[in-house]
């Protein structure tokens, strides 16, 4: 069941291709067969849309020795219609102790990982109300975080307990009661994590208060002032040290808080204090202001590779450049920066600021964030270097199935959302052929959809409108079909003709071609043969810009 989800942050490929391959092989045989449990988790029924979540106070104690958690979550919501019953989510291996409304317990039923609560009276449309869920149990232990998530229990190299949560894909309801669907972000949240004395918890947002509970535990209250995805909410418990800095950004001073393990302060100062500000400078230029100034920017060392936990980026790259010391592009450009600092922080703009309503559109998170890696390179090493990186990552593309997954069942599409998605965006930039406009589109996306959840059409529609070009068939081909288009050339009556062979209706991507050694010129082939109107061009001397275009040519 868990393997069905292609979790994660995308750090997916690379080292993890074996794991993904297994999951996808399973998908390949039954991807259209979804269960009632899938629908309960992934679809929007009136039992979910009847309330808009406003605020959570998650209050959880971690008994690390017993791998046992217990606590409560307060749901504050606004009713979007009259109702008496609603759904929230909590994995069925965790016990719902009770649900309390207006001081009294109210009835609930459970089906798979869904919990249905019935109120003693009609909750009226427009009213603000609240209830508290008390729960406990041994949460699922992550098999392979962050991809196959849950709670990670381990020890640091000095033998001290080290605990982390990572639950993208599988869902936050694997460890706490929540409305577990991406379309509805809570507006703000208080996260209270109680950890055994001597350890610290690092969660999202700002640390408000530390309280000795006089029972062997210390509670850490973290407040997030901005909308946040529930899979981003994190607990990280360990022997942490703390140092801080400030970045003078587009919206003024941005606080930087760094939480390495106590014995890694020296390494963290060297690695994080270099690449975090470099990342912020590059991404504020390309994408606009960091989206969560109120909550600050944070890096926290984790026992898993990394996750885009909002205003508390999880980091487990061992203070190495590249992806655990490797260059995913094979060009050398991937070794000049810390992959996890850059990639996971890129999600603050694409994933955390702009969030897809359905995980089927996870490309909105991963394609743009993959592409952000090349923009980081461009900022420091030039445009050519950035594009070499994009081009180099093509070796990781599988073209196994569409990037957009099936809607309503909590299922992502192909892992090609990373590298193929990055190549798609670089191609779109090439077609727009105006870097100022391209940058204004990237910044405009983050401004227009600031702190919002979005659909495929929102994003593609915005880009087309701002570009003044109908790029919809391009996105359609690369996101909805597994195959890439073929540009075909033929000679008829001594003249060169071209056409596209593609799946997307009306596919008409402008493409750069030239007479060998000359300057590139845009031509606009359709799915019918049309003459290539370039002086002196022949089947033998035609060259296509396959460096920037990820296409086949024949
Ligand atoms: Zn990612």
What can you see in these coordinates?
- The chain contains eleven helices and 29 strands.
- With about 550 residues, it is an alpha+beta fold.
- A hairpin with a 4-residue loop joins strand 13 (about 205-210) and strand 14.
- Helix 6 (about 365-380) crosses helix 7 (about 385-390).
- The chain is globular.
- Bound molecules: zinc ion.
- The site of zinc ion has 6 residues, from helix 6.
- Zinc ion binds near residues 10, 343, 347, 366 and 369.
Mind sketching the topology for me?
Elements: H1 17-30, H2 36-42, H3 46-49, E1 51-63, E2 68-79, E3 83-89, E4 95-101, E5 104-105, E6 108-111, E7 114-123, E8 128-137, E9 150-155, E10 161-166, E11 188-196, E12 200-201, E13 206-212, E14 217-224, E15 236-238, E16 243-249, E17 252-259, H4 265-287, E18 297-301, E19 306-307, E20 313-315, H5 339-346, E21 354-356, H6 363-381, H7 383-392, H8 419-432, H9 435-448, E22 452-454, H10 456-467, H11 472-480, E23 486-492, E24 495-501, E25 511-515, E26 521-523, E27 530-531, E28 542-544, E29 552-553
Parallel strand pairs: 1-11, 17-18, 18-20, 21-22, 23-29
Antiparallel strand pairs: 1-2, 2-8, 3-7, 4-5, 4-8, 6-7, 9-10, 10-15, 11-14, 12-15, 13-14, 16-17, 19-20, 23-24, 24-27, 25-26, 25-28
Helix pairs in contact: 4-5, 4-6, 5-6, 6-7, 6-8, 8-11, 9-10
Zinc ion binds next to helix 6.
Please give a quick description of this structure:
This protein is α+β, with helices and mostly antiparallel strands. It is built from eleven helices and 29 strands.
Strand-residue fraction?
Answer: 25-35%
Main sheet summary: 8 strands, mixed
> How would you describe the shape?
globular
- Radius of gyration over C-alpha positions, nearest whole angstrom: 25 Å
Bound compounds, each kind once, are: zinc ion
